[in-house]
Amino acid sequence: MAETLLFNALRDAIDEEMARDPYVCVFGEDVGQYGGSYKVTKDLYEKYGELRVLDTPIAENSFTGMAVGAAMTGLRPIVEGMNMGFLLLAFNQISNNMGMLRYTSGGNFTIPTVVRGPGGVGRQLGAEHSQRLEAYFHAVPGIKIVAVSTPTNAKGLMKAAIRDNNPVLFFEHVLLYNLSEELPEGDYVCALDQADLVREGKDVTILTYSRMRHHCLKAVEQLEAEGIDVELIDLISLKPFDMQTISKSIRKTHKVIVVEECMKTGGIGAELIALITEQCFDDLDARPVRLSSQDIPTPYNGKLENLTIIQPHQIVETARQLKAGRI
Amino acid sequence: MDSSAGAAGSHAERLAALYPAGPSSVSREDGLMLYRDMTLGRRFEDKCAEMYYRGKMFGFVHLYNGQEAVSTGVIKAMKAQHDWFCSTYRDHVHALSAGVPAREVMSELFGKETGCSKGRGGSMHLFSKEHHLLGGYAFIGEGIPVALGAAFTSRYKRDALGDASSDAVTAAFFGDGTCNNGQFFECLNMAALWKLPILFVVENNKWAIGMAHDRATSDPEIWRKAAAFGMAGEEVDGMDVLAVRAAAQRAIERARAGEGPTLLECLTYRFRGHSLADPDELRSEAEKTFWAERDPIKALAAHLQEHGLASAEELKAVEKEIDAEVADAISFALAAPEPDPAELTRYIWAED
Ligand SMILES: Cc1ncc(C[n+]2csc(CCOP(=O)(O)OP(=O)(O)O)c2C)c(N)n1
Ligand SMILES: [Mg+2]
User: Fold this and answer.
1) Which domain holds residue A129?
2) pLDDT value at B2 more than 60
3) ipTM of the assembly?
4) How far apart are CA B200 and CA B265, in angstroms?
């Protein structure tokens, strides 16, 4: 079977779900005639028509709020953030309306929505287009957050997110759209709340997500050559964390590194390590380590940008130190 | 006291220019139904103030006194449990007009499990899926896109799913101050662009807490902003329930016929402070008197009697009935159970 690019895997998932369920629709800027800024909805406009693949004006807070009202009255909208960063303008709708409304309404309404789009630090896109909103949105109650990292999990998670009756924030990564691999056949659906045990190992656990999975894989290769046996876990679900998989691994390795692309302060790792400390303290042989982006706006200059986010050699070095008992 | 429009300011002058509205007529049955609904709104709110000062309800409570002709005029022209309604923090009376039982609204204000939002929402967050109340929204403007979404669903069902019976119309209620917010303009644009079946009902009561309308906006005539989007816009005497009802009926007819949205600016006034916590220090006596003399409930009562549609005794009987209904809501709410602490985290997820 031929390999599929990640953006096409997402597209296939949306196409299959739209064909299966006539209430599934897409809202966003340039999702229709243009096919999406990263071509995730290519040709769906022709196939499903202008209402099911709705090209919206550039009005993030209002079209996101509109998705909430549509979901409350029976539709299952997928909202595309042309870049996830733009959804800062829809923070209110995502927080107050998607996240809190079901609770505030005492269970009157459900909000089956998916908010998806490209996040993360790309190549020299400047600070505003290099956001990692997963950290900003992490405290919002009532939403699930997932981050995809391979064509296979992109497809399976997208289908699961569309079928879920809760609001799901679905983070893709600007630099991963052209990854390609062979996809599982048939109606492939992943669990939204399950981490992916990428590689088993016994020396140290690395927890990561999104593009950093691939940085970690590079590091793991080198560490393997040095005789350091890493257990690599892709979190997939950033909210809630799959603590079962995580704590099982820590019981085995007793050492943990979190590798993340978000900034350190108030980041995903901050919450994750707090939970690990609460739940796995007695299993740890060393303090947990965070490798995060610098707490700065992402600079444009390529060298500075590389210094802002974690690089594979830093992961290698940290794992060495941990293994050697120097941390 | 001087109650001429001049002394009462430009908002009053606009109303005076509309006055008297064209000849309006109503059947005896409809007239009594409208009178009943407005009286329920008024008496319910008066009781809320009393309960608030007696420490039975808490938080921010925004009463609707004076604006009843808008809720009743619009919602009672729509189809209950078919059309959709979207409100703000000033939502008690919209909920009542939409048919949410007074018991459910009052117990919500008391934070009880029997409330329409199970005591989780409170005064500013009344919801009822059963009665198609999309909610009370406490942040300025955020309800407008939600209402737009409900209107989009109507069109989607009709045109994308081929359900010819999908003709529900949505009414979004909000204030004059909210019309300076981006969501207002964004949603007007999208509603007109996609010809969505929605009524944007502006309850222009001249004030946004302490900010006078003409100090906040470049053109105080909000209804004119419809023209910029190529949609129907209408200015209506918001103290005259029959005028509001007639304007709403025109707008609803257009919406159901697929002709798109209407911006309806209802000139009205709140008879109390912004909320029960507002000292209400900025509004002049002349202004308050001008509007008090145009009390929409008294105006309807006069109309019904002048046209021989109802006698003073009949109206009294309606009021007595309403008082009994509100008293019942109070005793129901007082006796109702609080939410079970074991259910503190329930309703976060769709599954529970
Ligand atoms: C986003 C946001 N900003 C500020 C407030 C505080 N606030 C509550 S009501 C109000 C005035 C609104 O006036 P208007 O739209 O005219 O409605 P009215 O209260 O007169 O019915 C303000 C500023 C809020 N609730 N939400
Ligand atoms: Mg106002």
Assistant:
1) 4-181
2) no
3) 0.97
4) 8
